[in-house]
Write a structure and sequence with these properties.
Layout: H1 17-30, E1 35-42, E2 48-54, E3 60-64, H2 73-87, E4 96-100, H3 105-110, H4 119-124, H5 138-141, H6 149-161, E5 165-175, E6 178-181, H7 189-198, E7 215-217, E8 220-222, E9 253-263, H8 276-301, H9 311-332, H10 340-367, H11 373-390, E10 394-395, H12 398-420
Parallel strand pairs: 3-4, 3-5, 5-9, 6-8
Antiparallel strand pairs: 1-2, 2-4, 6-9, 7-8, 9-10
Helix pairs in contact: 1-2, 2-12, 7-12, 8-9, 8-10, 9-10, 10-11
Length: about 425
Amino acid sequence: MDKSGVSLLPELRYPSVPQLVASARALAAAEPRLCALRQVGASRAGRPLHLLSVGHARRAVLVVAGAHANEPTGGSTLRALAERVLAAPELRADTSWHFLLCADPDGASLHVTPAPRSLLDYHRGFYRPTGAEQPEWSPAVLPPDRLPPETRALTGVIDELRPYLQATLHGTDLGGSWVQLTRDVPGLAEPFAKSAAELHIPVETGASDAAGWPASGPGVHVMPGPESGVAYPSLPDDARHSTWYHAHRYGGLTAVVEVPMWASDLVGDPAPHPAPAAAMRRLAARLLRDALEIERVFEDALPRLRDADGPLLRAARWVLELMPGLAADWVQTQPAGTTMAYVGSVDAFGRRLPLRAAAMLLRVLRQTDDRAAPVLERLVACWCEAYAARFQARWVPLAHQVEHQSRTVLVAARQARERTG
C-alpha cells in the first residue's frame, strides 16, 4: 500500500449473487446424481434464496455465506468448498454438504465493492443493514412473529437438515482471523493456527467480538453459556439468541469463521497491555468525537433528504445510535488480563463504526449531489487513510482468504464429526 492508502494490486473480483447461482447451477447440471440446487425461500424484496446440496448422506454440514452484505469472501469460499467436496469422494462418503449461497441477497445488492483496491474503495460502496434486518442476528432483537423471511428460511433449512455442523462464513475489513464456536471443537485450534501462519494471516487473539469469552486456543473462542453476562451491555444483539444456536436443537453446533481482507499484526499481540484503562478511555473519547462529526453532517443534510427511511440511512442512523453506549461500555468494563491484541481490536472496531456510518450517509448524499457530500467525502478519505496507516494494513490475497476459510471449515467438520460420533 502506498502513502496515499491505495493498494497496488491487480483487479480483484468477489462473485456477485447471480454469479454464485450460475456456478451452482453449472455444478448441479454437470453432476445431477450428486448435486441439487433448489430455492428454499425468498427475501423481503422477493429475491430467491438458493441451497446447493452435494451428496446424499443423512449426516449433514450446512455452510452459510452472505449473512453480512459487507463480508464478500464467504461467497468465494462457498464456491471453492462446493467444488472441493464434489471432487473428493472421501469428504462426502458419510456426510452431505449443503451450501446456502447467500443469506441476505437484498443486502448483497446494496453493498457495491466487487473489486476493492483500498479501504477507501471498500467504503465507497459500503452497506450493512441494521441488526433487525440481518438474517442471523434478527432473533436477538426481534420477537418470533416479526422475524424477516431470510431468517425463517435459514432456520427452516436447519430444521430440515439437522446439521451436526453449521459453518457460517464471515469476514472483517482489517485485522486478523478468528473462529467463534457455540460449542468447543477439540483439535481445531492447532490446524487453524497452522493454516493462518502458512498463509501469512495474523490470528486475532483478542477479538472484540469475543470479548470475555473462553478460548480453546489462540483465536478460537467458545461462546459462553446463558448464565454469563455480555461484554458490551449497550449492544442490542446477543450471539446466544442468534440463529447460530438453532443447530443445538438437534445436537449440532455452529462455527463462525472470520477472515480479513486486509491484515494487521497489531491484533495478534498477546502481551499484556501496560495501561488498558487509559487506552480504553482514549478510544471511547475518539469514538464519541467521530460520532459527533457525522451527526453534524447528518443534521444539516436531513431536511434536504427525500427518503429519510431508506436502507442506507436507516443503517447509518442505527450505527450512530450504537456508539455512545459502546463508548461507555469500553470505559466501564475491560476483560481480565487485557492484552495488546484486545486493545488493538477495539481500536479497529472504534474506527470501523464511524467509517461505516459516514460511508453509508455519503452514498445517500452523492445520489442527490447534496452540498454536504464533499465534507463527508474528505472525512471518509481521511479516516480510511488513518485506519490503514495505524494498522500497517496489507492486502491478504483473495486466494489466501478463501484457502484459509476453506481449510478451517473442513477441519471443523472433521473434528466436530468425531465429537458427535
